[in-house]
Amino acid sequence: MGNNPSSNAVSQCLSSAVGGNAGLLAFKSDPLYQLNHVKPYNLDIHITPAAVTYPKTADHVAAIVKCAVDYNLKVQPRSGGHSYANYGIGGADGVIVVDLKNFQQFSIDKNTWQATIGGGSLLGDVTKRLHDNGKRAMAHGTCPQVGIGGHATIGGLGPTSRMWGSALDHVEEVQVVLANSSIIRASSKENTDVFFALKGAGASFGIITEFKVRTQAEPSESVLYTYTINAGNAASKANTFKKWQALIADPNLSRKFASQFILTELGVIITGTFFGPKSEYDALNITSRLPSSKSDSVLVLKDWLGVVGHWAEDVGLQIGGGIQSNFYAKSLAYTKDDTLSDEAVDKLFTYLDKVDKGTLLWFVIWDLEGGAINDVAPDATAYGHRNALFYHQSYAVNLVGRVTPTIRNFLTGLNKIVTDSLGHELGAYAGYVDPALGDNGAKMYWGDNLPRLQSIKAAVDPKDIFHNPQSVRPAKA
C-alpha cells in the first residue's frame, strides 16, 4: 500500500471522487466485504483490496485514479472479474479496485456497423446486444460471464477468431483513463502508442470505459460437432492426438473450422464449430481424419444465439463457467514449428496416464488458433503470439480445499514434458495468467513486444499506478 496512508483520508478522497455516493464504494471494514465486493474468482488466492469502487462516469474513474496517485496506492480495473490469479482485484493486498459494472452503454452505427460498448459489459450481453441491433457479431471467447474490459485488452480468443481475429483485433478506438487522470481517446490515428499497449496489455496502462469495435454479420448457418473418441489407454489417446494435430496443422484447413481436443479423467472429446453449411463441413471429411468415435453429435443451427449458447453450455461442463473455486492453470502457445513428434506425444500421454494429479477434476484443452489472428503483424499490437497455431490450457480444481503441491507439480510437469521435447521455451497466454511464472511471465506473455511496452509504460505511467504482480513495469531510465 505504498506509504500506508490513513484509511480515513483515502475513504474521504474516494467518496469525493464519486460525488459522495456511498453506494459506489466498499471498504475492507464493511460487513461481508469479501463476499459481496471482493468476490475472488480463484478462491486459492486470498486478496484484500483497500477499496472496491463502482464509478458511473469516466470522470469518476479519473478522480479515483487521482486518489490512488495522491496516496501512493495501486489500481486495477475489473470488468468480469475472471482473472485466474485475481489480478482484477489487484493480485495483492491494498489495491484500489475500479469495478466497471456500471459501464453498460451500447449503440451501433448501422452505416459503418461499428458498435460502442461499455467497458463493464459481459460477453453474454455483448452477444445479445449485437444480435438485437442488426444481427451482428464479433470474435470473443465462450464464457458469457467474462467481461469485455479484460477480454478485449488481453487477447480475446474464441471459436470465430480464425475467421475474424481476436477480440482485440475488433477494437478500433477506446476511451481510456490514464495514470495522470486524463481521459483520452486512443486509436490507430491518435495516441497510437497507448492504443498499441491497450491491445494486449491493457491492465498495465489504463482503464477503458468505452470500446468502439468493428462487427461482422452473424454466420447464417453453423455446424457444431462433438466426437467422443474410443481411446481407453495412453497409447490410443496419443494416437488420437496425433491425428488431431495432423488435421489442425494442415495449412489449407478452412478458416471456418474451429476445433478443440479435450482430455479429462473421463476420456477424449474432439469438439468445435464449422461456420458454414453442413455440405461444406461434410466436404472436409473430418471423421475420416480422426479415429473412430463411440458417439458423435453433429448439430446444424441457423440461430446465432443458439450457437453461442451451446458454447456456454460446453464451458459449464468443462470448468464450471464463472463459478469460483480453488484452482490452478497453466498454458503454452505452440507455433506451426512446434507440433509434437510422435515420440513426444507418446511421452506426454504416458505421463498424463501415470502421474498423480492430486484431483479427479482436471482437464487439458488444446485449442486451434491461427488463421486471421496470424494475419496481423507481430508488432502491430501488444498481443504477443501472432504466430501461435494452437494453445494448450491445463486446469485442475481442488473441491475440498487449497490447491496442493501435487496438483501444481502435475501441471508444471505437463508443460515441462512439452518444452523439453521441443528443446525450447514456449510463450504463455496472458488471458490464462500464471503467477508461478513470476518475473519471467511478462516475456512469456508479450514476447518481443515487451521492451516497447516498458518504454510506453515509463512515458504514461512512470509511477506504476496500474499494477499487478505480473503487469508491465516501466523501463528504467
UniProtKB/TrEMBL annotation:
UniProt keyword Oxidoreductase, yes or no: yes
Limits of the FAD-binding PCMH-type domain: 45-218
Alphabetic keyword roster: FAD, Flavoprotein, Oxidoreductase
Gene3D superfamilies: 3.30.465.10, 3.40.462.20
SUPFAM superfamilies according to UniProt: FAD-binding/transporter-associated domain-like (SSF56176)
Keyword flag Chloroplast: no
Gene Ontology molecular function: any one: oxidoreductase activity
Pfam families: BBE (PF08031), FAD_binding_4 (PF01565)
Family membership noted in the UniProt record: Belongs to the oxygen-dependent FAD-linked oxidoreductase family.
Stated name of the protein: Glucooligosaccharide oxidase
Organism: Amniculicola lignicola CBS 123094
Lineage of source species: Eukaryota, Fungi, Dikarya, Ascomycota, Pezizomycotina
